[in-house]
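User: Show me a protein chain along with its predicted structure.
Assistant: Here is one chain, sequence first, then C-alpha coordinates.
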Amino acid sequence: MRVTGAALSAAAALELYDSYLDTCAQLAAHDALRKILDRGDSGVGTRSGQLDGLTRDYLDLARRYRTHDTLEFLREHLAAFESGDDPHLAWLRERIRSSPSFRTLRQHWLIPLPEFAGETVNLVASDLKRLGDATMGGTSKGFGNAVGAVQFRRGKLHGDPAVESAIRQGLQPGDILLEKTPFRLTDRFIPGHWGHVAIWMGSDTEVRAVLGDDPLLAPHAARLATGAGVCEALRDGVQLNPLSRFLDIDDICVLRQPGLPRDELAAILRRSLRQLGKAYDFNFDVETADRIVCSELAYQVYTGIAWPTGKTLGRWTISPDQVAVRAIDGGPLQVVELWHDGRRLDGDLQAELKRLLAAAR
Protein backbone atom coordinates (compact mmCIF):
# COMPACT_ATOMS: atom_id res chain seq x y z
CA MET A 1 0.00 0.00 0.00
CA ARG A 2 2.87 2.41 0.83
CA VAL A 3 4.45 1.70 -2.55
CA THR A 4 1.19 2.42 -4.37
CA GLY A 5 0.76 5.65 -2.40
CA ALA A 6 4.32 6.73 -3.19
CA ALA A 7 3.81 5.90 -6.87
CA LEU A 8 0.61 7.95 -6.95
CA SER A 9 2.37 10.88 -5.28
CA ALA A 10 5.33 10.69 -7.68
CA ALA A 11 3.11 10.43 -10.76
CA ALA A 12 1.07 13.45 -9.68
CA ALA A 13 4.19 15.54 -9.00
CA LEU A 14 5.78 14.56 -12.31
CA GLU A 15 2.56 15.45 -14.11
CA LEU A 16 2.79 18.98 -12.66
CA TYR A 17 6.46 19.35 -13.59
CA ASP A 18 5.81 18.07 -17.13
CA SER A 19 2.81 20.38 -17.50
CA TYR A 20 4.94 23.37 -16.51
CA LEU A 21 7.62 22.50 -19.07
CA ASP A 22 5.03 21.80 -21.74
CA THR A 23 3.16 25.09 -21.32
CA CYS A 24 4.34 27.70 -18.81
CA ALA A 25 8.07 27.43 -19.56
CA GLN A 26 7.38 27.97 -23.25
CA LEU A 27 5.49 31.15 -22.43
CA ALA A 28 8.04 32.33 -19.86
CA ALA A 29 10.80 32.06 -22.44
CA HIS A 30 9.02 34.61 -24.66
CA ASP A 31 9.66 38.08 -23.18
CA ALA A 32 6.65 39.82 -24.71
CA LEU A 33 4.17 37.08 -23.76
CA ARG A 34 5.64 36.78 -20.29
CA LYS A 35 5.20 40.51 -19.68
CA ILE A 36 1.57 40.44 -20.87
CA LEU A 37 0.64 37.36 -18.85
CA ASP A 38 2.40 38.56 -15.70
CA ARG A 39 0.99 42.06 -15.51
CA GLY A 40 -2.45 41.01 -14.22
CA ASP A 41 -5.78 42.69 -14.81
CA SER A 42 -8.00 43.81 -11.94
CA GLY A 43 -10.88 44.13 -14.37
CA VAL A 44 -11.07 40.37 -14.75
CA GLY A 45 -9.69 39.48 -11.33
CA THR A 46 -6.24 38.22 -12.29
CA ARG A 47 -3.23 38.95 -10.10
CA SER A 48 0.13 40.08 -11.42
CA GLY A 49 3.21 37.84 -11.36
CA GLN A 50 1.37 34.50 -11.65
CA LEU A 51 3.63 33.13 -14.35
CA ASP A 52 6.72 34.08 -12.36
CA GLY A 53 5.10 32.46 -9.35
CA LEU A 54 4.67 29.20 -11.25
CA THR A 55 8.34 29.33 -12.25
CA ARG A 56 9.35 29.80 -8.61
CA ASP A 57 7.18 26.83 -7.64
CA TYR A 58 8.82 24.74 -10.37
CA LEU A 59 12.30 25.64 -9.09
CA ASP A 60 11.43 25.31 -5.39
CA LEU A 61 14.13 23.11 -3.86
CA ALA A 62 11.90 21.69 -1.12
CA ARG A 63 9.34 20.50 -3.67
CA ARG A 64 12.03 19.07 -5.92
CA TYR A 65 13.61 17.24 -3.00
CA ARG A 66 10.27 15.74 -1.91
CA THR A 67 9.70 14.37 -5.40
CA HIS A 68 13.29 13.11 -5.57
CA ASP A 69 12.88 11.46 -2.15
CA THR A 70 9.69 9.72 -3.30
CA LEU A 71 11.43 8.40 -6.42
CA GLU A 72 14.29 7.16 -4.24
CA PHE A 73 11.75 5.33 -2.03
CA LEU A 74 10.36 3.58 -5.13
CA ARG A 75 13.88 2.65 -6.23
CA GLU A 76 14.62 1.17 -2.80
CA HIS A 77 11.38 -0.83 -2.99
CA LEU A 78 11.87 -1.76 -6.62
CA ALA A 79 10.72 -5.37 -6.24
CA ALA A 80 7.34 -4.32 -4.88
CA PHE A 81 7.07 -1.48 -7.40
CA GLU A 82 7.84 -3.76 -10.38
CA SER A 83 5.75 -6.77 -9.33
CA GLY A 84 2.08 -7.48 -8.98
CA ASP A 85 -0.88 -7.54 -11.30
CA ASP A 86 -2.56 -4.42 -9.93
CA PRO A 87 -3.59 -2.47 -13.08
CA HIS A 88 -3.50 0.82 -11.17
CA LEU A 89 0.13 0.27 -10.14
CA ALA A 90 1.00 -0.81 -13.70
CA TRP A 91 -0.47 2.45 -15.03
CA LEU A 92 1.47 4.48 -12.45
CA ARG A 93 4.72 2.70 -13.39
CA GLU A 94 4.20 3.55 -17.04
CA ARG A 95 3.29 7.16 -16.28
CA ILE A 96 6.38 7.67 -14.10
CA ARG A 97 8.81 6.11 -16.59
CA SER A 98 7.40 8.03 -19.54
CA SER A 99 7.72 11.39 -17.76
CA PRO A 100 10.38 13.69 -19.28
CA SER A 101 10.98 15.05 -15.75
CA PHE A 102 11.58 11.59 -14.24
CA ARG A 103 15.32 11.39 -14.91
CA THR A 104 15.90 15.05 -14.04
CA LEU A 105 14.29 14.88 -10.61
CA ARG A 106 15.69 11.46 -9.80
CA GLN A 107 19.28 12.57 -10.44
CA HIS A 108 19.57 16.36 -10.35
CA TRP A 109 17.16 17.88 -7.82
CA LEU A 110 19.65 20.12 -5.97
CA ILE A 111 21.34 23.35 -7.09
CA PRO A 112 24.01 24.81 -4.73
CA LEU A 113 22.36 27.76 -3.04
CA PRO A 114 25.05 30.36 -3.90
CA GLU A 115 24.60 29.47 -7.56
CA PHE A 116 20.82 29.18 -7.45
CA ALA A 117 19.96 32.61 -8.86
CA GLY A 118 22.35 32.23 -11.79
CA GLU A 119 21.37 28.65 -12.50
CA THR A 120 17.59 28.94 -12.68
CA VAL A 121 17.58 29.86 -16.35
CA ASN A 122 20.03 27.07 -17.17
CA LEU A 123 17.96 24.54 -15.25
CA VAL A 124 14.73 25.39 -17.04
CA ALA A 125 16.53 25.44 -20.41
CA SER A 126 18.07 22.04 -19.68
CA ASP A 127 14.73 20.58 -18.62
CA LEU A 128 13.06 22.06 -21.70
CA LYS A 129 15.63 20.44 -23.98
CA ARG A 130 15.07 17.11 -22.26
CA LEU A 131 11.33 17.48 -22.75
CA GLY A 132 11.87 18.35 -26.41
CA ASP A 133 14.11 15.33 -26.91
CA ALA A 134 11.55 13.05 -25.28
CA THR A 135 8.71 14.48 -27.36
CA MET A 136 10.58 14.32 -30.64
CA GLY A 137 11.98 10.88 -29.88
CA GLY A 138 8.53 9.50 -29.03
CA THR A 139 7.02 10.93 -32.20
CA SER A 140 9.88 9.69 -34.34
CA LYS A 141 9.74 6.25 -32.73
CA GLY A 142 6.02 5.88 -33.35
CA PHE A 143 6.37 7.03 -36.94
CA GLY A 144 9.43 4.85 -37.57
CA ASN A 145 7.83 1.74 -36.13
CA ALA A 146 4.72 2.31 -38.22
CA VAL A 147 6.41 2.83 -41.59
CA GLY A 148 9.25 0.44 -40.82
CA ALA A 149 6.92 -2.52 -41.12
CA VAL A 150 5.96 -1.61 -44.71
CA GLN A 151 7.98 -3.53 -47.34
CA PHE A 152 6.69 -3.93 -50.89
CA ARG A 153 8.99 -6.78 -52.00
CA ARG A 154 12.27 -8.53 -51.26
CA GLY A 155 15.62 -7.00 -52.13
CA LYS A 156 17.28 -7.91 -55.40
CA LEU A 157 20.33 -9.27 -53.54
CA HIS A 158 18.23 -11.32 -51.11
CA GLY A 159 18.48 -15.08 -50.87
CA ASP A 160 21.19 -15.59 -53.51
CA PRO A 161 24.09 -17.67 -52.11
CA ALA A 162 26.33 -16.72 -55.04
CA VAL A 163 25.82 -13.01 -54.37
CA GLU A 164 26.39 -13.45 -50.64
CA SER A 165 29.56 -15.45 -51.27
CA ALA A 166 30.91 -12.88 -53.73
CA ILE A 167 30.36 -10.03 -51.29
CA ARG A 168 31.57 -11.97 -48.25
CA GLN A 169 34.88 -12.89 -49.90
CA GLY A 170 35.84 -9.24 -50.30
CA LEU A 171 34.97 -8.11 -46.78
CA GLN A 172 37.49 -7.32 -44.05
CA PRO A 173 36.84 -6.56 -40.36
CA GLY A 174 36.05 -2.88 -39.85
CA ASP A 175 34.52 -2.33 -43.31
CA ILE A 176 31.65 0.16 -43.46
CA LEU A 177 28.53 -1.14 -45.23
CA LEU A 178 25.99 1.14 -46.91
CA GLU A 179 22.69 -0.16 -48.29
CA LYS A 180 19.70 0.97 -50.32
CA THR A 181 16.17 -0.46 -49.99
CA PRO A 182 13.81 1.49 -52.27
CA PHE A 183 11.09 -1.10 -51.64
CA ARG A 184 10.78 -0.13 -47.96
CA LEU A 185 8.64 2.82 -46.95
CA THR A 186 11.28 4.08 -44.50
CA ASP A 187 13.69 4.58 -47.41
CA ARG A 188 11.38 7.25 -48.86
CA PHE A 189 11.91 9.46 -45.80
CA ILE A 190 15.73 9.30 -45.69
CA PRO A 191 17.45 12.07 -47.66
CA GLY A 192 19.92 11.06 -50.35
CA HIS A 193 20.66 7.72 -51.99
CA TRP A 194 21.82 5.48 -49.15
CA GLY A 195 19.45 4.52 -46.36
CA HIS A 196 21.42 2.55 -43.78
CA VAL A 197 24.96 2.13 -42.40
CA ALA A 198 26.53 -0.86 -40.66
CA ILE A 199 29.98 -2.10 -39.62
CA TRP A 200 31.32 -5.48 -40.70
CA MET A 201 32.96 -7.17 -37.70
CA GLY A 202 34.00 -10.34 -39.51
CA SER A 203 33.82 -13.94 -38.38
CA ASP A 204 34.65 -15.03 -34.85
CA THR A 205 38.07 -16.19 -36.11
CA GLU A 206 38.75 -12.89 -37.88
CA VAL A 207 37.78 -10.81 -34.86
CA ARG A 208 39.92 -12.90 -32.52
CA ALA A 209 42.86 -12.56 -34.92
CA VAL A 210 42.69 -8.81 -34.27
CA LEU A 211 41.51 -8.65 -30.65
CA GLY A 212 42.75 -11.90 -29.16
CA ASP A 213 40.90 -12.72 -25.93
CA ASP A 214 39.73 -9.18 -25.31
CA PRO A 215 37.11 -9.16 -22.51
CA LEU A 216 34.76 -7.11 -24.71
CA LEU A 217 34.38 -10.16 -26.95
CA ALA A 218 33.05 -12.54 -24.31
CA PRO A 219 29.36 -11.40 -24.29
CA HIS A 220 29.20 -11.57 -28.11
CA ALA A 221 31.43 -14.56 -28.94
CA ALA A 222 28.53 -16.98 -29.34
CA ARG A 223 26.68 -14.62 -31.67
CA LEU A 224 29.79 -14.01 -33.79
CA ALA A 225 30.42 -17.77 -33.95
CA THR A 226 27.04 -18.23 -35.69
CA GLY A 227 28.15 -15.90 -38.50
CA ALA A 228 26.42 -12.76 -37.24
CA GLY A 229 29.15 -10.34 -38.29
CA VAL A 230 27.12 -7.24 -39.18
CA CYS A 231 26.97 -4.64 -36.39
CA GLU A 232 23.98 -2.40 -37.06
CA ALA A 233 21.56 -0.07 -35.26
CA LEU A 234 17.96 -1.07 -35.93
CA ARG A 235 14.77 0.19 -34.32
CA ASP A 236 15.08 -2.39 -31.54
CA GLY A 237 18.69 -1.45 -30.75
CA VAL A 238 22.28 -2.09 -31.84
CA GLN A 239 22.85 -5.75 -32.59
CA LEU A 240 24.82 -8.35 -34.52
CA ASN A 241 23.13 -9.94 -37.55
CA PRO A 242 24.20 -12.35 -40.30
CA LEU A 243 25.17 -10.99 -43.71
CA SER A 244 22.32 -12.96 -45.30
CA ARG A 245 19.79 -10.91 -43.35
CA PHE A 246 21.53 -7.64 -44.19
CA LEU A 247 21.44 -8.45 -47.92
CA ASP A 248 17.67 -8.02 -48.24
CA ILE A 249 18.60 -4.94 -50.29
CA ASP A 250 19.04 -3.64 -53.86
CA ASP A 251 22.32 -1.71 -53.43
CA ILE A 252 25.40 -2.18 -51.28
CA CYS A 253 28.58 -0.17 -51.01
CA VAL A 254 31.59 -1.39 -49.00
CA LEU A 255 33.93 1.34 -47.74
CA ARG A 256 37.34 0.80 -46.18
CA GLN A 257 40.00 3.00 -44.66
CA PRO A 258 43.17 1.63 -46.23
CA GLY A 259 46.47 1.33 -44.42
CA LEU A 260 45.03 1.15 -40.91
CA PRO A 261 47.63 0.06 -38.34
CA ARG A 262 46.65 -3.09 -36.47
CA ASP A 263 46.20 -1.26 -33.17
CA GLU A 264 43.83 1.27 -34.77
CA LEU A 265 41.77 -1.52 -36.38
CA ALA A 266 41.59 -3.20 -32.97
CA ALA A 267 40.36 0.09 -31.45
CA ILE A 268 37.69 0.36 -34.17
CA LEU A 269 36.42 -3.16 -33.44
CA ARG A 270 36.40 -2.47 -29.70
CA ARG A 271 34.39 0.72 -30.23
CA SER A 272 31.97 -1.27 -32.38
CA LEU A 273 31.53 -3.87 -29.64
CA ARG A 274 30.83 -1.10 -27.14
CA GLN A 275 27.85 0.07 -29.22
CA LEU A 276 26.08 -3.29 -28.98
CA GLY A 277 22.99 -3.21 -26.81
CA LYS A 278 22.49 0.55 -27.05
CA ALA A 279 18.99 1.79 -27.79
CA TYR A 280 18.11 3.33 -31.15
CA ASP A 281 18.37 7.11 -31.22
CA PHE A 282 14.99 8.28 -32.49
CA ASN A 283 16.22 11.88 -31.99
CA PHE A 284 19.04 11.31 -34.55
CA ASP A 285 21.41 13.36 -32.38
CA VAL A 286 25.14 12.65 -32.84
CA GLU A 287 25.90 14.47 -29.57
CA THR A 288 24.25 11.74 -27.50
CA ALA A 289 26.32 8.64 -26.74
CA ASP A 290 23.83 6.43 -24.89
CA ARG A 291 21.57 6.04 -27.93
CA ILE A 292 22.61 5.61 -31.52
CA VAL A 293 21.18 5.67 -35.04
CA CYS A 294 22.63 3.63 -37.92
CA SER A 295 24.78 6.34 -39.51
CA GLU A 296 26.13 7.30 -36.08
CA LEU A 297 27.90 3.94 -35.96
CA ALA A 298 30.55 5.19 -38.38
CA TYR A 299 30.70 8.51 -36.50
CA GLN A 300 31.21 6.81 -33.12
CA VAL A 301 33.53 4.05 -34.34
CA TYR A 302 35.80 5.86 -36.83
CA THR A 303 36.75 8.69 -34.51
CA GLY A 304 39.81 9.63 -36.57
CA ILE A 305 37.73 10.73 -39.56
CA ALA A 306 36.30 14.23 -39.83
CA TRP A 307 32.67 13.43 -40.64
CA PRO A 308 30.32 15.96 -42.21
CA THR A 309 27.18 16.65 -40.18
CA GLY A 310 24.10 18.80 -40.57
CA LYS A 311 21.68 20.49 -38.19
CA THR A 312 18.06 19.31 -38.25
CA LEU A 313 15.44 20.53 -35.77
CA GLY A 314 18.18 21.91 -33.54
CA ARG A 315 20.20 18.67 -33.46
CA TRP A 316 23.44 17.75 -35.19
CA THR A 317 22.86 14.67 -37.35
CA ILE A 318 24.76 12.56 -39.84
CA SER A 319 23.05 10.84 -42.79
CA PRO A 320 24.20 7.71 -44.66
CA ASP A 321 25.10 9.88 -47.67
CA GLN A 322 27.30 12.02 -45.41
CA VAL A 323 29.17 8.82 -44.54
CA ALA A 324 29.49 7.94 -48.24
CA VAL A 325 30.94 11.31 -49.29
CA ARG A 326 34.14 10.55 -47.34
CA ALA A 327 34.95 8.02 -50.09
CA ILE A 328 34.95 10.61 -52.90
CA ASP A 329 36.92 13.76 -53.71
CA GLY A 330 40.05 12.69 -51.86
CA GLY A 331 38.37 11.43 -48.71
CA PRO A 332 40.03 8.92 -46.36
CA LEU A 333 37.76 6.02 -47.35
CA GLN A 334 38.01 3.74 -50.37
CA VAL A 335 35.19 2.05 -52.30
CA VAL A 336 36.05 -1.65 -52.46
CA GLU A 337 32.67 -3.06 -53.58
CA LEU A 338 29.59 -1.50 -55.18
CA TRP A 339 26.32 -3.08 -56.30
CA HIS A 340 23.46 -1.06 -57.75
CA ASP A 341 19.93 -2.23 -58.59
CA GLY A 342 20.97 -5.83 -58.03
CA ARG A 343 24.06 -5.66 -60.29
CA ARG A 344 27.74 -5.56 -59.43
CA LEU A 345 29.51 -2.48 -60.78
CA ASP A 346 33.07 -2.53 -62.10
CA GLY A 347 35.55 0.07 -63.23
CA ASP A 348 36.00 3.37 -61.38
CA LEU A 349 33.88 2.65 -58.28
CA GLN A 350 34.57 6.05 -56.77
CA ALA A 351 33.14 7.73 -59.88
CA GLU A 352 30.12 5.40 -59.79
CA LEU A 353 29.49 6.24 -56.13
CA LYS A 354 29.80 9.93 -56.88
CA ARG A 355 27.24 9.56 -59.67
CA LEU A 356 24.74 7.83 -57.37
CA LEU A 357 25.14 10.52 -54.71
CA ALA A 358 24.73 13.32 -57.26
CA ALA A 359 21.60 11.73 -58.76
CA ALA A 360 19.93 11.62 -55.34
CA ARG A 361 20.35 15.34 -54.58
